[in-house]
Amino acid sequence: MKKEPILPESRDTTFRDQVLKTHVGEKIPTCIQCGICAGSCPVSHEMDYSPRELVRMVQLGLKKEVLSSNTIWICTTCFSCSVRCPRGIHPTELMETLKPIAIAEGIINKNAKFDNVFSSVIKNNGRASEFLLISRYSMTEPRMIKQLPFGLEMMAKGKLPLSIDRMENTRELEAIFKLGEKGESKIENKEIKEKDREKDSDKEKEKEPQETKMQENENEKVEAKK
Ligand code: SF4
Ligand code: SF4
Fold it and tell me: What segment(s) does the record annotate as region Disordered (predicted)?
């Protein structure tokens, strides 16, 4: 997989601090880059950056590269890396922490599509349905048309049931989704406020030289009158 070179100017310490302040961030500086997480990951071969690389990139504050990588969306949350890390770092939870930040930044990775379809199927039915997952994902991903003969073959063999197994009571599940959505909107609001503060401070900085110049002009006028 071809990767763009990472330049030193890509470093963003605000992003690094934002992640380090979260409940998973505390131990990230202690990573020894042993690679046990990457070696344990069943899907690292599909990732732009392995979990080990992602942890290092967070340490360096490589915001753009981290948030636009497919790694956070490819992770299956199997927890292999988290249970094996000798430093007690939780790369699994790091992925989950980075997803809402990427969404709040408006960074849409194509791998997020499956994540969205999966969440909506679970939210509506309480259980995963292979048929709903594949059919809805195919609508968002034209490449999936190539898989149609395979899907039909699976259906013919009864491996892709059309029946949807719904959960009887989805009240608790709805509460979990609401909590998640609340958390995401909190992050979004925080980001928007921080951006507004940065804009205000930039405007103040722009004003300062103008005000100084005006003051100098006034002083010159007073001196000339004397
Ligand atoms: S297993 Fe833990 S210490 Fe080792 S590279 Fe991964 S995150 Fe770092
Ligand atoms: S939790 Fe994610 S990153 Fe960790 S081993 Fe599993 S798939 Fe890989």
Answer: 187-226
- Residues 190, 28: Cα–Cα separation, whole Å: 22
**Residues with Cβ within 6 A of ligand 1?**
31-37, 51-52, 55, 85-87, 89, 91
What number does the ligand 1 atom closest to the CA of 35 have? 5
Q: What is the Cα 91 distance to its own chain's centre? A: 13
- Return the domain boundaries, the chain: 6-109, 110-179
Q: Report the alpha-carbon distance of residue 127 to residue 25 in Å, rounded.
A: 31
The 3 state secondary structure assigned to 83-109 is HHCCCCCCHHHHHHHHHHHHHHCCCCC
CA-based radius of gyration for the chain: 25
Ligand nearest, relative to CA of residue 31: 1
The vertex-99 CA angle with 131 and 138, nearest 5°, equals 25
Supply the residue whose CA is at minimum distance from atom 6 of ligand 2. 78
| pLDDT tens figures, 18-73 | 999 999 999 999 999 999 999 999 999 999 999 999 999 999 999 999 999 999 99
Q: CATH number of the domain at 6-109, out of 1.10.1060.10, 1.10.10.10, 3.30.390.60, 2.170.150.40?
A: 1.10.1060.10
Distance 93 CA to ligand 2 centre (A): 9
pTM, rounded to two decimals: 0.67
